[in-house]
Here is the input.
Amino acid sequence: MADAADIGDYGVRINVLCPAFGTRPLQSIEQEDNMGKFVKYKNSFKEKIDKYGVLPPSKIAEGMLRLITDSSLNGAVMKITCSKGIHFHTYGPLSA
Here is the structure.
């Protein structure tokens, strides 16, 4: 989609922000009513949160602002994790 937007000169950029766990989801997990059909995964989510940590909202906002303000980014997949901070996922060429 990002390539089509660029080739068609539509004036839009398409990027993806993939943050790890943030403090808000942590609060939501503690309230079972918020989990809906995913309540059965509550303990698994908690284990992953313990393993990978919790991002402060400011770090997620920093990544979002970078995607918005850096006009060279189109088709970017930005990951934000506690261990690596803000980084980009790159894809190799598609196999034929």
About this structure: The CA atoms of residues 52 and 61 lie 19 Å apart. Helices lie at 2-7, 23-30, 32-35, 42-52, 57-69. Residues 57-69 form the longest helix (13 residues).
